[in-house]
Design goal:
420 residues; alpha/beta; two-stranded antiparallel ribbon; 17 helices; 8 strands; 44% helix; binds nicotinamide-adenine-dinucleotide; binds zinc ion
Length: 420
């Protein structure tokens, strides 16, 4: 019997310029007295996390800032953050001020200070033990300072397990933040390179959930088998469409001029809206490919990110195979692909499998993203390794609208070595 039910989950939302000034008030309503503010050194340098912490004092809340988050967190960096929180606790609530790296680290800290055990007990099997948290978590307020991941509304936290060289995560409904406070004023200091990469993450969240396998095409689940990602559905579709319309107006502008307040506000909404969409529908091939693309980096160092280690940032890694992935998914639903192209670049006539790939590639060129996998240092000889890494992401590939074989992924990767 095929599925007849879909689900939708979301945090409370507070969105708009100045929203982050109200966090102390909001936490005081939850009887919170001691708060750990979680951030990374780059965001800490903007002063935003300290301002958020200082503002809580007037509500009788003691807030301390922990700025030890690693950009694109690892098991080691998350364990260090958890150890800090355990040693300096107990904490009544957590506030993450930063991008996906800070928000995901705060989710892990919240989980491991509210529940027994260690990080790897909860990491997805087979890498970890895939245990479910037995106890409810503390309130977590997520305050994004990038316009990208949508991590403020999702149930997952992503980490690099160093010893195994794999990126994986923890996924459970209890990880979802209690409240997302989306204040576009905090995003003006986001470097142009981060705005470009993180913005491609928004775009791919919207496009992948919009083109995902529909929820009704799966087998009927029992109530205890339901997962946060249920496939494309009418609620996720409408969030994805709204995110695409916002991106079409504001993405190029926000990269060009970080102080364009209207573009920053629209990008902040696009990120959260796309998060509300993909956080319930799921993502597929470009995200599956991004894991090995980021994980096997050799010496690429992108502008705007910490220069101490080579990296392909998440949004950039996702974008590099997106045009070719959407060329391949086109036959599953031509009308959706054409509608997405029209939402992203209105005012043209769109036809055929090349429409969406060319809209995405044009955008990438305009915001100066690397020209395909070759632009971050991969060559033809790397395709086999990248295929192997992508095929491990079966949970994501299962959300693709067509069945994906190794040869299909190899073709998409090979055609993504150079995009224009
Ligand atoms: N949990 C989820 O649902 C989810 C979804 C997608 C991606 N992710 C994860 O999120 C991480 C990426 O997060 P991200 O793209 O938001 O970036 P990020 O948190 O990694 O930050 C990127 C860089 O930008 C800097 N920065 C951020 N905001 C700034 C600001 N306002 N001013 C100045 N500098 C600023 C940071 O210091 C850092 O150097 C990856 O680990 C990725 O796997 C999680
Ligand atoms: Zn993403």
């Amino acid at each position: 019997m095929s599925e007849t039910v879909f689900t939708y989950g979301a945090p409370g939302l507070k969105i708009g310029a100045g929203a982050s000034d109200e966090i102390g008030f909001d936490l005081a309503q939850m009887d919170v007295r001691r708060v750990l503010v979680v951030t990374d050194p780059g965001v800490a340098a903007t002063g935003h996390p300290q301002r958020v912490a200082d503002q809580m004092a007037q509500f009788g809340i003691e807030a301390r800032v922990f700025d030890g988050v690693r950009v694109e967190p690892t098991d080691a960096s998350m364990e260090a953050a958890i150890a800090h929180a355990r040693d300096s606790g107990p904490w009544d609530a957590f506030v993450a001020v930063g991008g996906g790296s800070s928000i995901d680290t705060a989710k892990a800290v919240n989980l491991l200070t509210s529940n027994d055990g260690e990080l790897m007990d909860y990491v997805n099997a087979p890498v970890g033990k895939g245990r479910d948290p037995a106890r409810p978590l503390k309130p977590l307020v997520a305050v994004p300072t990038t316009t990208g991941t949508g991590a403020e509304s999702t149930t997952v936290c992503v980490l690099d397990v160093l010893s195994l060289k794999v990126k994986t995560g923890i996924s459970h409904a209890r990880l979802r933040p209690t409240l997302a406070v989306v204040d576009p004023l905090l995003t003006h200091t986001q470097p142009a390179g981060v705005t470009a990469s993180a913005g491609m993450d928004i775009l791919c969240h919207a496009l992948e959930s919009y083109t995902a396998r529909p929820y009704s095409s799966y087998d009927r689940k029992q109530p205890d088998q339901r997962v946060p990602y249920c496939g494309a559905n009418p609620i996720s579709d409408s969030w994805s469409e709204q995110a695409m319309a916002l991106l079409s107006r504001s993405f190029r502008r926000a990269v060009r001029d970080g102080d364009d307040a209207e573009a920053r506000e629209e990008m902040a909404m696009a990120a959260t809206f796309a998060g509300l969409g993909f956080g319930n529908a799921g993502v597929h091939i470009p995200h599956a490919n991004a894991y090995p693309v980021a994980g096997r980096v050799r010496d690429f160092r992108p502008d705007g990110y910490p220069a101490d280690e080579p990296m392909v940032p998440h949004g950039m890694a996702v974008s590099l195979t997106a045009p070719e992935a959407f060329r391949w998914t086109f036959p599953s639903s031509p009308e959706r692909h054409l509608k997405a192209a029209a939402l992203l670049a209105p005012g043209h006539e769109y036809d055929g499998p090349d429409a969406l790939p060319s809209v995405v590639a044009d955008l990438m060129r305009d915001i100066t993203l690397p020209n395909g996998l070759g632009g971050v240092g991969y060559g033809e000889g790397d395709v086999g390794d990248l295929v192997e890494g992508a095929m491990k992401q079966q949970r994501l590939l299962a959300t693709a609208p067509r069945e994906v074989t190794e040869d299909d992924v190899a073709g998409i990767l090979a055609r993504s070595l150079e995009l224009w």
